[in-house]
């Protein structure tokens, strides 16, 4: 019996040894897995907590000045050739750094060892360096980067909430607005015209005379623009994107949340201000003649077949302008002329298409606070209708666009022919 117990105990001890070894191995593996998971959880939590920290909490102090969307006149006809022509620009709201990026901020964001020989202001920075800085700054702030960088091919998503370089239109608007700002120095920009140029997003090129909405320059080119070096708000400098100039740095900006969506309302408000300030220029509109409604015989049984047959028509009361729309009035309402002033700008417009006339009516209604009569696909705002159809032929034109009454072939004619009038 004793021998049997000893044998059983021996087998039991052996079994327990096997179980211990197996369990110990699994426990060790499990322990390692737990430690690995905890470690990564810590790293993730650290990443999340870091991402949630503001730039100020990370020791990066940027003061951004907010600028509401506006319409302004860009360029100069009295400066250098590349500053002309003067043209109208509509900008969405944006914010721009009060100061140029300094040496400390630059090295802190790029996480590279500072160069002791560098002093403020930060210069000798290429355009490529600047956009790379913007993307890294955006990531540190938890924003969506604006730039997609593929070697020397750089594109910008202006709807992203990250940091970017200002367009030169934004830079010029900020510089002009800065001169008009009054006592509140906290909302004024520093060193906008201190002899240090500042990189802008745009490729270099000549201006267009046409009205521009949030312009960002040409799609391609060989040089990028910098502004502010010569102390003038309209002067323009340019250099290749890889250039590192001893007098060019940069500042950053961000698009507003409504970027691009606010330009229609901005333009309407601007138009109303101009209309109100120049009300006397629209004097012909005050001379509306009331026509009493009634019944009359319409048409003519003469030679022209399209005037036949004579038929009875009844109309309600309505008003009709005492004079025809003049070139001057047309230009004041639409911000552009049509054709050439055949007998002077106070003569009746003779080069407007039917589409032009409908566009004019709705635009004028909006300026006067009236409900527009015409709609395309339910939309009464002519600014949302797209380009007016036209054709290019020899003859009288406005710009390079001829009145649509000449068999228009360019533009969405089928859509424009769907215009409805709500009398």
Distance between the first and last residues' Cα: 117 Å
Cα-atom radius of gyration: 34 Å
Strand content: 15-25%
- The assigned structural class equals alpha+beta
Strand order of the largest sheet: 10-9-7-11
Q: Which spans of ≥5 residues are poorly predicted at pLDDT below 50?
A: 1-9, 33-51, 392-408
Total count of strands: 20
In round numbers, the mean pLDDT is: 80
Helix content: 25-40%
Structure description:
By secondary structure, the protein is of the alpha+beta class. Helix content is 30%, strand content 17%. The chain contains eight helices and 20 strands. It has helices at 2-52, 103-110, 127-141, 168-180, 263-277, 327-334, 354-367, 413-416; strands spanning 64-67, 70-74, 87-91, 94-97, 147-150, 153-156, 197-203, 212-213, 224-227, 236-239, 248-249, 253-255, 288-291, 294-298, 311-315, 318-321, 374-375, 397-398, 401-402, 420-421. Mean pLDDT is 80; it is low at 1-9, 33-51 and 392-408.
Helix-strand blueprint:
Blueprint: H1 2-52, E1 64-67, E2 70-74, E3 87-91, E4 94-97, H2 103-110, H3 127-141, E5 147-150, E6 153-156, H4 168-180, E7 197-203, E8 212-213, E9 224-227, E10 236-239, E11 248-249, E12 253-255, H5 263-277, E13 288-291, E14 294-298, E15 311-315, E16 318-321, H6 327-334, H7 354-367, E17 374-375, E18 397-398, E19 401-402, H8 413-416, E20 420-421
Parallel strand pairs: 3-8, 7-11
Antiparallel strand pairs: 1-4, 2-3, 4-12, 5-6, 7-9, 9-10, 13-16, 14-15, 17-20, 18-19
Can you summarize this structure?
The protein is of the alpha+beta class and 423 residues long. Helix content is 30%, strand content 17%. It has a four-stranded mixed β-sheet, with helices on one face. A three-stranded antiparallel β-sheet has the order 1-4-12, with no helix packed on it. It has a three-stranded mixed β-sheet with strand order 2-3-8.
